[in-house]
Amino acid sequence: MALVAVGCGGGGTDTPAGPAAGAVTGTPVNDAGGTAAPPPATPPAPAPVALDASVTCGISNFQALILQQINTARAQGRSCGSTAFAATTALAWSDPLFAAAAKHSADMARNNFFSHTSLDGRTPGQRITAEGYAWRSFGENIAAGQGSIDVVMAGWLASPGHCANIMATGFADVAVACVRQSGSTYGTYWTMDLARR
Prior knowledge:
alpha/beta, single chain
């Protein structure tokens, strides 16, 4: 049985609140349930993705810093809204998830939109599959307007649905990307993809 999350929860929408506040939205996964779907076919795995400045908002040591914050959060029990989560295992970085996240952040930035659904209609699961990751479960958090890892992580952890994605025991892998685009509505576009094979 596949555990899939589609849509937003915890009061989030796909419309950012405003540049000053930034915006976050996620496709939360509830460990106790979800929408079942057959696992997608496995396409050939693409080459590893380089973490260059264009997909890390120019933040030095991006992968280590974001992964450390994610795994520090998971190592502590916490409440995500009214749901309590026990401390859980660390997530591993995934190059295929990074490719999916980077391409989605770049698409949102370049085309000045903010949504889990790509303008061509693809969902997070379809984007993850296209990068060669044969998932059993996945989730996605997106954010716009935040200028640092600290700020985006604080926003995600303060939002019940996004926090639940970060704390979900149904995931083993994660990747995050951030793309800056001058002249866009929010300036920065973040995507966190989480999944398990």
